[in-house]
Amino acid sequence: MIQSPLELRHLRTLAALRDTGSLSRAAELLNLTQSALSHQLKLLEGAYGAPLFERKSVPPRFTALGGKLLELADAFLPRVAETERDIARLAAGAAGQLRIAVECHTCFDWLMPAMDAFRERWPEVELDIVSGFHPDPVGLVHQDRADFALVSEVDGEERGIHFYPLFTFEIVAVLAANHPLLAKPWLAAEDFREQTLITYPIPDDMLDLVRQVLAPAGIQPQRRTTELTIAMLQLVASGRGVAAVPFWAVQNYLQRGYVQSRPVGPRGLYGRLFGACTDSRAGLPYMTDFVRLLREKCFLTLPGIRLL
Question: Which residues does the UniProt record annotate as the domain HTH lysR-type (predicted)?
C-alpha cells in the first residue's frame, strides 16, 4: 500500500493559493514565508511526480492534479472547520455574546459581511454592534458595555486588555477629477495648507492624516466634516475640498473616475487596525474564531491591505 504524502496543511495551502492569486499573498495569509510555502508545494509535487499549477500564470492556473486536490480541499476543509468549532462548543459551552464597538466610520464597509459570516458559523452567539462611533471603544470594553473593540492604536500599558493585530492599509488623498494637485505624483503636508480638508467628525488624534502628517508639520487647513463616506466623496467631486480615506473605501469610485487619488508622502500613508477584548475573553473559542475570520475575510476582499 502506497502511503499518501497529502496532509491537511497542503489542502489549506492550495486553497489559499487559489483564493489569493499569488504565492506571496498565500504565504501571508497562512503566516508562512514565501520560501517555506514554495518548498512545501515542491515537496508535494515531487511526491506525486507532477506539477500542481503553472508557475508563470497569474493568477496561478492549476493542473488537473492541482484541480483534483482543490476539489478535495473544498469538500474537506469546511467539514474540518465545522468539527473544530463543534469541539470548541462542547469544551467551552456554546452560548455567549459579542458586542462590537468601533472608532472608525469606514469599518462598516467590511465589518458587516464578516459579521454575517460569523453568524453562520456561531449562530448561538448573540452578535451586535454598539450603537454609534466611539472615541474610546476600549473604555466600553473595560465597562463591560462592549465585548470587542476595533481600534487604530495599541496602548502597551493598557491593563487587562488583549490586543489582536488585524491589518494595515493605505490611506490615499482623494481629489476632484480636475484638481490642480493631480499634477503631483504624491502630496506633502504643505499641499493641504490651502485646501478644505473634509473628515469624519472624530478627534484629530484618531485621524491618521492629521496625526502622522499635518500636525507634525504645523499645517492646519480649513475643515469640514461629514459622517458618511459617500457624502464626503460627493463634496470632493464637486470641488468643495479634499479628503484622505482608506484605499478600499474609495476604490470603486476611482475605477469609475468619479474622483481621483494620490499617495500621501513619497512612501504613502498607512493606518492600522487592531481588535481588543479583556484578557478573560481572549481565550473564548468564538472570540478567537471571530478574529481569524476578520483577518481572512478582509485579506481576501479588501484591496491593498497587509496582515499585521
Answer: 6-63
- Per-residue tens of pLDDT for the chain, all 308 residues: 446 688 899 999 999 999 999 999 999 999 899 999 999 999 898 888 899 999 888 889 999 999 999 999 999 998 988 888 777 766 665 668 899 998 776 777 788 888 988 998 888 888 998 876 677 888 899 999 999 999 888 877 788 999 999 999 999 999 999 999 999 999 999 999 999 999 988 888 889 999 999 999 999 999 999 988 899 999 999 999 999 999 988 999 999 999 999 999 999 999 999 999 999 889 888 898 899 999 998 898 888 889 98
- Exposure on the CB side of residue 250, measured as CA atoms within 13 A: 28
Grid cell of 51 as nine digits? 506539477
C-alpha cell of 292? 481569524
- Could you give the C-alpha distances from 40 to 24, 36, 46, 146, 245, in angstroms and in order? 14, 6, 10, 42, 39
pTM of the full structure: 0.80
DSSP code for 211:
I
Q: How far apart are CA 107 and CA 71, in angstroms?
A: 34
Cell numbers that stand for 131 in this block: 450603537
In the chain, the DSSP E strands lie at 53-54, 61-62, 96-102, 125-129, 148-151, 161-175, 196-199, 222-225, 242-246, 260-262, 269-278, 306-307
133 Cβ contact partners less than 8 Å away, ≥ 6 residues apart = 102, 103, 104, 105, 200, 202, 227
The single-letter code of the amino acid at 140 is: L
Residue 186 is given by DSSP the state: S
The SS3 call for residue 221 is coil
